[in-house]
Design a protein that fits this description.
Layout lengths: L4 H11 L3 E2 L6 E2 L3 E3 L5 E3 L17 H9 L3 H9 L6 H23 L7 H36 L7 H13 L7 H6 L5 H24 L4 H23 L5
Antiparallel strand pairs: 1-2, 3-4
Helix pairs in contact: 2-3, 3-8, 4-5, 4-6, 5-9, 6-8, 8-9
Membrane topology: Multi-pass membrane protein
Function: Mediator of sterol homeostasis involved in sterol uptake, trafficking and distribution into membranes.
InterPro entries: Arv1 (IPR007290)
Amino acid sequence: EALTGRGVLRRAMAALGAYRCIECNREAAELYRDYQRGVLRISICKSCQKPVDKYIEYDPVIILINAILCKAQAYRHILFNTKINIHGKLCIFCLLCEAYLRWLQLQDSSQNIDPDDLIRYAKEWDFYRMFGIASLEQTSFLVGIFITLWWMRPKMLKTKSDFILLLKALLLSSYGKLLLIPAVIWEHDYTPVCLAFIKVFVLISNSQAIRVTLNLNRLLPWLAIFFGLILENGVVCLFQKMGWDV
């Protein structure tokens, strides 16, 4: 194969172990081979003898549906075989959604309708405070997960790139928090139940992200999430003792 720009890039990616088989999680040299004139052939995994990544032919909507269904293959495709770098922006937007939900609940509990500028400034400050609290809780949750995994399987998080990949996976798998806004906008008697389902869905997605990223069984990711929730709730209790509405 001629060392074209695409060929050089593909060889470099393979050297870095950037590609993974979505079925068995083994490293792969390439996802497909380009025979020019629009002829592509999906690579076959040498370990499991299945296509390395069948999703490269799928429509993004189908991939999203499979991700919503928490299929491990879809998660491996997104995390290892694509270059999605929206995890930072997605995290900020999810925190804004959570802060808005808390701020709205705080305003509903307040009976003060004075339009004075000082009152409006106080309400704006409340939103910033909710955003800060949501950020600290999210950070505590992630720290709890990392500490648990590092303590139980230190060999799996031995490099900085391992931490970054797992952090990216956890942030991307929290996309379910975006459903908080529709749940609030279309408020009805079942809103608390909807919020509970959203929370459970996000935790299931986080568990699958940990499992796929570190190639673990189902038990350890849930154990890490459990300790993450303990640390997060500890931060909540601390804020409540300080007299803050969270």
